[in-house]
Amino acid sequence: MVSDKPEGRVGTLLKGGIVVELEPACVERVDLRIEGERIVARGPDLPAAPDDEVIALSGKLVFPGLVSAHQRLYASLGRGMPRPKLEGYEELLEKVRWRYEDALDLDAVQVAATAGGLEALQCGTTSLFDLHSSPKAVQGALLRVGRGLHEVGLRGVLAYAVTDRRGALGREEGLEETVAFTRKARGRLRGQVGAAPLFTVSKEALEGIAEAVKSTGAGLHVPLAEDPLDEKLSVERYGSSPVMRLVDGGLLSPQTLLAHVGHLAWPELAQLLPTGAWLAHTPRSNMEAEVGYAPALKFGHRATLGADSVSADMFAEAQAAWLRSRDAGQPIDVLRYLANGQRLASQAFGLQVGQMREGAVADLLLMDYQPATPLTAENLAWHVVFGLGSRHVESVMVDGVWRVWARRPLSVNPSVVAEQAREAAAAVWARMSEK
């Protein structure tokens, strides 16, 4: 590259790069010109305007920014924490996940969002859909998550996971938080109405969620059937399966985002697909939690990928998803899954995300990838699965602004972020041990 750090210019001209699009797959040596937050021109040998910053790419990849459709940023402070020996999913919730959530305060929430957001950005993830939970620090929690993402320059759609786990007061606080944020979110941030696993969501809570969806016009973000326990306890407590509760509540639509979807019989899955709901497959998280394989090949044309509580490295997620599906004898179309994340972001923000074309928002990556074999549209999926990775991400642009340049974040100091995160993690772990 011929520039140290482009900034303060009328336009940016990316010359001599290999521009990649995911679906339909496209690999083309072509120039891109960016003004403001948009791509304004694409073509061979584009001329530079007088004030353009010209960046010579010499064959490096220009790749669309990736999207995590289901993220738990607050988990960024839990990596490597001590944990007891567990017997199944219920103990994982009660002894680890819920204790950890209960130990979060607002400062920890913001630090976790900054640290997790920075990691996502450096991995080439430019947008994420975060489902948050901090039952003892509800009011203002999404604002704190938003501040963390704003600090690093990431695009985010945020929701608070409404639950009855801490009673009616906690439920109402969660509803108020997710609705209030959704109504005021602007710019690179948007809101959704969130819910916890439905076996922790009462009839009254589900009615409140339905009213929140109606009043805000936002979609619902909810984990579904991560483990068979979701259906078992939902039926025991509320007399109906999670899917039927969503159907009866009128909560399945093209704006609904369902995460995990690992343990549904085909008749229930067949009820979901015609609604146009998005299904976020989370293979690395599923394997870590030992909850079994989600039959991703059956997820239909609105299936995408999320990282959940692990790092928002969507190259790693895509590779795990494809390899696990191949091992199950049901290989998925990995490019479609990644492209659907960009379609989901396009829907949430009302922007064209993921297309390296005129009029699209400039969320993109510059990647230093020198493949040992030809790279074409026909074999792009194989390069994604077996070659490309976050280690190749050199620079990251979000909304037309460089957020990472030459592998260096521009708006935060990674060492400071890491130090603050370690301090916050130690405090959270200490509060967990006091319980």
In brief, what are we looking at here?
With 435 residues, the protein is α/β, with parallel strands linked by helices.
Query: In percent, how much strand structure appears in the residues?
Result: 15-25%
Average pLDDT:
96
Task: Give start-end ranges of low-pLDDT stretches.
Answer: 1-8
**Rg on CA atoms, Å:** 21 Å
Shape descriptor reads: globular
* Tally of helical segments: 13
**Number of β-strand runs:** 20
Helix and strand composition category: alpha/beta
Q: What kind of sheet is the major sheet? A: 9 strands, parallel
Helix content: 25-40%
Kindly, what is the distance between the CA atoms of the first and last residues, rounded to a whole number of angstroms? 54 Å
Task: Provide a descriptive summary of the structure in words.
The protein is α/β, with parallel strands linked by helices. Helices cover 37% and strands 21% of the residues. The chain is built from 13 helices and 20 strands. It has helices at residues 89-102, 106-122, 141-152, 167-184, 203-216, 229-238, 242-248, 266-272, 283-289, 314-327, 334-349, 380-386, 414-433, and strands at residues 11-15, 18-21, 26-29, 31-35, 38-43, 53-56, 61-64, 66-71, 125-132, 155-162, 189-191, 193-195, 220-224, 257-260, 278-281, 303-305, 364-367, 393-398, 401-405, 408-409. The strands form 3 sheets. Strands 8, 9, 10, 11, 12, 13, 14, 15 and 16 form a 9-stranded parallel beta sheet that branches. Strands 3-2-7-17-18-19-20 form a 7-stranded mixed beta sheet, covered by helices on one side. It has a 4-stranded mixed beta sheet with strand order 5-4-1-6, with no helix packed on it. Helix 2 (106-122) packs parallel to helix 3 (141-152), helix 4 packs parallel to helix 5 (203-216) and helix 10 packs across helix 11. The radius of gyration is 21 Å and the shape is globular. Residues 1-8 have low confidence and may be disordered.
